[in-house]
Amino acid sequence: MALQALRDKKLRGQLTVKEKLYGQSAKAAAKAEQWLMPTEGGFLEPDDDLEKTYRVQQDSILKEVDLLSSKKPFDMILPVLGPYTIEYTSNGRYMLVGGRKGHLAMMDMLTMDLIKEFQVRETVRDVAFLHNERLYAVAQKKYPYIYDHRGTEIHCLKEHGKALKLQFLPKHFLLTSINSFGQLHYQDVSTGEMIANYRTGLGRTDVMRVNPYNAVTSLGHAGGKVTMWKPTSVKPLVTMLCHHGPVTAVAFDRSGHLMATAGVDRKIKIWDLRKYEVVKSYPARAESLDFSQKGLLACSNGSQVEIYRDFGGHDYRLYMKHRMMKGYQVGKVLFRPYEDILGIGHSMGLSSILVPGSGEPNFDTFVANPMETTKQKREKEVHALMDKLPPESIMLNPNMIATVRAPKKKEKKTKKEIEEEMDDAVEAAKNIERKKKTKGRSKPSKRARKEEDVLRAKRPFLEQSKEVDERPDKKQRIGEEVQLPKALQRFAKKLQS
After folding, report:
1. CB-based contacts of 359, cutoff 8 Å, min separation 6
2. Does residue 7 have a pLDDT over 80?
3. From CA 147, how far away is CA 415, in angstroms rounded?
4. Cα–Cα distance for residue pair 288/273, rounded to 1 Å
5. Count of CA atoms in the C-beta half-sphere (13 A) of 193
6. Is the pLDDT of residue 260 over 50?
7. Buried b / exposed e along 191-227 (16+ C-beta atoms within 10 A)
8. What's residue 299's pLDDT?
9. How much is the pLDDT for 441?
């Protein structure tokens, strides 16, 4: 109906053809999605208003799911070497387990096979996979170490010091650590070069998370602040006062625009990073936070795990609850990519529970392939190294890359520069050659035309010089050059001889 109101027939015809093409492409995309991505994610749905999804227990869910999904939840009771921390690869196939008392193990979660298990015989604080499952970093008692999938020690990173937390940036091949002195380190694992080493100046912290959208590293501090860092900046890009006490956990959603923080003040806050405002706040405590691929938020509190779901407009409400056995203290919660699974590392071992609707049901083999072969892994590693981004590309808004910086207000031309440009324009105007349209010499008319060209060339520069003259100058220092009235001379500063 809107197109019929247009009077321009040509424009109306062009828009009609474009709308027809858009409709055809939308139908083709819908058909391709129907065939290529047939799996749909499903949440727990209550039958009526009185039924609550958070009252549904794991035993009830296991009775209703298929045989393959029913084998994924498990409980490993390892009371001697805990508490445990866990980490998944980007495709969700491999899991790395680290016990506080030196126990390390790697598992294939697709076949539930143990790949390697060994004991380092010293404190293990954190574990992190590098670009794939063949290499991983472990923050041990004195230094971080890098091991391969066979358990062989590859490197000892002494420059990092006593690391408390590790994170890896896959697109930049950077290993990030924060040590007990509050020093933030960035090291390129492809070349071994130390990219940056900064003192945060806000004390010891073991709360660190990388935003998946822009690769900015966020730290939670004891003063309730959250700082955001990049390897090419000595000072934090953003400093936010999030809580009235120490920050205990930080997490980012898949889009990178939402940040969840938890503090000792018993509050969980969800922030919109596009406006740096709180969109939701809950009176709850959390030792660990994690967002799933579908936007579910998992929080651990003592022996209980709570999962929140967005019901629209950042309205996060309680979706599921899971209580561990009495005495178990949950240390870390982490969603497994491309699966409806939540991994839990606690003081007595590790567990895995089913969370319907948490994982992405369809995976892109060019991004992450849980079924990839050895040849595909090798090719993917080569492509990742060729496409490696430099540390300078890390910024709050990555869309600013390849754009032109707007000129600053201070970068205005001086009066001398304006006069030089005006002289060049006048010379160019004088040298303009005109066609001889009249017979004879006609000198007065030619002279008038030249004067008119010169005035036309001078006009914009005269306006610019006028603006420069009208600018408020800095206050002149009162000295010998400025003569004040006798009544005000006693207030003038005397020059030092």
Report:
1. 41, 92, 292, 293, 294, 335, 336, 337, 338, 339, 340, 341
2. no
3. 64
4. 20
5. 9
6. yes
7. eeeebbebebebeebbbbbbbbbbbbbbbbbeebbbb
8. 95
9. 56
Q: What is the mean pLDDT of residues 42-48?
A: 84
How many Cβ atoms sit within 10 Å of the Cβ of residue 54?
Answer: 16
pLDDT > 70? residue 445: no
Q: Which residues pair with 119 in a beta bridge?
A: 103
The three-point CA angle 130-135-141 to 5° equals 85
Alpha-carbon span 155 to 143, nearest angstrom: 10
Residue 480 is classified by DSSP as S
Helix (H) / strand (E) element for 83: namely: none
Is there a contact between 390 and 172 (Cβ–Cβ < 8 Å)?
A: yes
Closest CA to 380 of 174, 129, 202, 132: 132
Write phi, then psi, for 486 (nearest 5 degrees).
Answer: -60, -35
Residue 407 has a pLDDT of 57
Predicted local confidence at residue 48, as pLDDT: 80
Mind listing the pLDDT tens digit for each residue in 471-483? Answer: 554 444 544 455 7
Helix 443-470 crosses helix 415-430 at what angle (to 10 degrees)?
170
The whole-number average pLDDT for the span 279-289 is: 93
For the record, the structure tokens of 20 come out as 């027809």
Residue 321 neighbours by CB under 8 Å, 6+ apart: 54, 55, 304, 305, 306, 307
The sign of the CA dihedral 212, 215, 221, 226 is negative
The DSSP element (H or E) to which 30 belongs, if any, is helix 9-36
